[in-house]
Amino acid sequence: MRRPDLEAVVFWWRRTAVRKRVVVNLADKAFSGVLWAKRGPLLVLRDAELLEAGREPQRVDGEVVIERAKVEFMQVLAGGGG
């Protein structure tokens, strides 16, 4: 039987990065932006920039939706709220 109160305590860390500025690193590129939501297997970034090696950051209109399975790692930037 599930205990919602226990799940809230055990998984409190899952929401700590939401509404904070992050860098989501993929195998071939990265995105910088505000982590707006985590929806099942997806991450939603707003106010995002595409980061690629050897190029200037490029602003991205709208929201960026990334599959969690494709994320190598994510960095939460200090003091970077949305």
Q: What do these coordinates show?
A:
This protein is mostly beta strands. 9% of the residues lie in helices and 51% in strands. Strands 1, 2, 3, 4, 5 and 6 form a six-stranded antiparallel beta sheet that branches.
Key attributes of the depicted protein:
single chain, about 80 residues, mainly beta, about 50% strand, globular
What would you say about this model in short?
The chain has 82 residues and is mainly β. The chain contains one helix and six strands, in the order αββββββ.
**How confident overall, as mean pLDDT?**
84
Major sheet size, sense and barrel closure: 6 strands, antiparallel
- What's the shape? globular
User: How much helix is in the residues?
Assistant: under 10%
Rg from alpha-carbon coordinates: 14 Å
How far from one another are the termini?
37 Å
The total count of strands amounts to: 6
Unreliable stretches:
5-13
Helix and strand content put the structural class at mainly beta
Order of helices and strands: HEEEEEE
**What's the total helix number?**
1
Strand content: over 45%
